Amino acid sequence: MVYALLDGMLLVGSAPDGGGGGVSVLEMVRAGGVIGLVIVLLSLVAVVLIVAHGLQIREGALAPVHVVEELERLLSKGQVNAALTFCKDESARCFLANVMGSGLSRYKRSPFGALELKSALEEAGQEQVAKLYRSTDGLSLVATIAPMLGLLGTVVGINGAFATISTGEGFGRPDQLAGDISLALVTTIMGLVLAIPTTAVVTYFRNKIDSLATTIAVIVDDLAVHLESEGLGGASAPAGNGGSGA
Fold first, then answer.
1. Nearest to 128 by CA among 209, 66, 61
2. Among 26, 235, 15, which Cα is nearest to 112's?
3. pLDDT of residue 208
4. What is the pTM of this model?
């Protein structure tokens, strides 16, 4: 991420006559020293997390079609035990299955049956949404740390420049101060280049979580209607109505 954005910035900042006014990304990273290298490593972590979240936070992963169809089939027939077993199966593990599994478990345990179902599903849904939010904390941490590392590089670079001046005779020559000034400026740029898009991506994923949670809530409500319409009584229901469907 940092490499790509820095490369674009350097192309814009290059001299129009192509006379070597720009510097390469590698030179920028070298100028950033150890702190710049840490920021680059953080950018690689951010890319990995973005790809992972992109695969995880989508409707096809949170509520796969085959899970929806199977739960629809089982619950429409009143096969609560079979639906609960399916939700706990590893092949069906997802946001929707976790919510329905928690709801169906309480539905069967409670003597109030369907009266407990709605609150159980709401609580399970909130818990799953909270887990998805927490999964984005890694990206949020990268977005927070990156500019602080840039600021640290700036302070270190300025401190080095003053140290060079204090130990030299008279005013420090530009070539003596160049390394410290580069560290001060480059690390700030690198930190901001990483933090700004990462912050935007975190916001995007969290908004997407809210949107998908709303969509899945509609699916859950549609599935719960089967239990309410059948009038099953959870733990007090006759064995035939809550059968395993085996």
1. 209
2. 235
3. 96
4. 0.74
Q: Mapping DSSP to helix (H, G, I), strand (E, B) and coil, where does residue 8 land? A: helix
Q: Is 245 helix (H, G, I), strand (E, B) or coil?
A: coil
Tokens of 108: 């069967």
What length is written for the chain? 246
C-alpha dist (Å) from residue 65 to 73, 193, 239:
12, 39, 29
**From CA 130, how far away is CA 56, in angstroms rounded?**
14
Count of CB atoms within 10 A of residue 31's CB? 22
pLDDT given at position 183 = 64
Q: How far apart are CA 54 and CA 49, in angstroms?
A: 8
State which H helix or E strand residue 58 sits in: none
Q: Which residues, given as ranges, of the chain have pLDDT below 50?
A: 3, 5-6, 8-21, 232-246
Cβ neighbour number for residue 138 with a 10 Å cutoff: 16
Give residue 161's identity as a one-letter amino acid code: A
| H-run or E-run covering 81 | helix 80-88
Kindly write down the DSSP assignment for every residue of 176-239, as one continuous string.
HHHHHHHHHHHHHHHHHHHHHHHHHHHHHHHHHHHHHHHHHHHHHHHHHHHHHHHT--GGGS-T
pLDDT, one tens digit per residue, over 193-245 is 999 999 999 999 999 999 999 999 999 999 988 877 655 444 434 334 444 34
Residues 6+ apart with CB under 8 A from 209: 57, 129, 132, 133, 136
